[in-house]
Amino acid sequence: MTFVDYYKILGIDKSATPADIKNAYRKLARKFHPDLNPENADAKKNFQQINEANEVLSDPVKRKKYDQYGNDWQHADEFEKAKQQQQSSASRGSRNSGAQSGTDFSEFFESMFGGSAGGSRGRQAKYRGEDYQAEIHLNLIDAYKTHQQTLTVNGNNIRITIPAGIENEQTIKISGHGGPGVNGGPNGDLYITFFVANHHRFKRLGNNLYVTIDLNLYTAILGGEITLDTLTGQVKLKVKPETQNGSKVKLKGKGFPVYKHDDQFGDLLVTFDIKIPTKLTDRQKELFGELLKIST
């Protein structure tokens, strides 16, 4: 079996910290994401390898097994149990010793789970497959609506539906899509963590959205109607006369959808930032002077 060096795939060494692994993965995932490289035939394969490497090295338990057993890390628990059984049997002592001396345990596993007498006992023991970890990165507009995405895990394409309103760093479980079971055991599960990027205008807190918009002095004083951009289009917003700087207006139901409740929405809270006019003409200055005299 060809050895797959997960450290080399992520461009790090064995002394890498969890933060180093996380940073390396995110950098490479963005670089080789298939959606960003539609013309690159190797991008999908590279992205798959990067995800596999991250799944193992970002998990301390899996990483320890990988460092010790290499490609056979997923069967580390079975190996330890089988090794203990062999150590208790003098007739199989030599085979057990040979298995311990190598760095590739594939032949040993084959002997344990193959057609030998020892293998028949191995086949009777069923082991659940490993759980996998994956990440999906979304922008705020993606998270606003229910949509589907295809995720590649261990060479398999999994099409999932992402409900509107998914939270940043929320994790969901896809049962049975983890590592394969051993000896007929059940598959592990797939855990997907979502990372929702900040928006350049809107701030999200729970199901509410917050936005600050500029308001000219004249509309703030006299009142009027302005056009406001939202995540789903433009709306008309009435401004009351004598609106103060920092005033807030709540637009009910114009916020973020409630998770798994597409018909329920939070609110949009608008804060006014009143802008003082600049580069006044002489006539404008004169009029403001008259206003000052009247007001005093």
What is the secondary structure topology, with strand pairs?
Elements: H1 6-10, H2 18-32, H3 43-57, H4 60-69, H5 76-87, H6 93-101, H7 106-113, H8 117-124, E1 132-138, H9 140-144, E2 147-153, E3 156-162, E4 171-174, E5 190-196, E6 203-205, E7 208-216, H10 217-222, E8 224-230, E9 233-239, E10 248-251, E11 257-258, E12 261-265, E13 268-275, H11 282-295
Parallel strand pairs: 1-5, 7-13
Antiparallel strand pairs: 2-3, 4-5, 6-7, 8-9, 10-13, 11-12
Helix pairs in contact: 2-3, 7-8
Structure description:
- It is a single chain.
- The protein has 296 residues and is an alpha+beta fold.
- It has three domains: 6-124, DnaJ domain (Helix Hairpins); 132-196, HSP40/DNAj peptide-binding domain, CATH 2.60.260.20; 203-295, Urease metallochaperone UreE, N-terminal domain (HSP40/DNAj peptide-binding domain, Sandwich), CATH 2.60.260.
- The chain is 36% helix and 26% strand.
- The protein contains eleven helices and 13 strands.
- The strands form five sheets. A four-stranded mixed sheet has the order 6-7-13-10. A three-stranded mixed sheet has the order 1-5-4. A two-stranded antiparallel ribbon has the order 2-3.
- A hairpin with a 2-residue loop joins strand 8 and strand 9 (233-239).
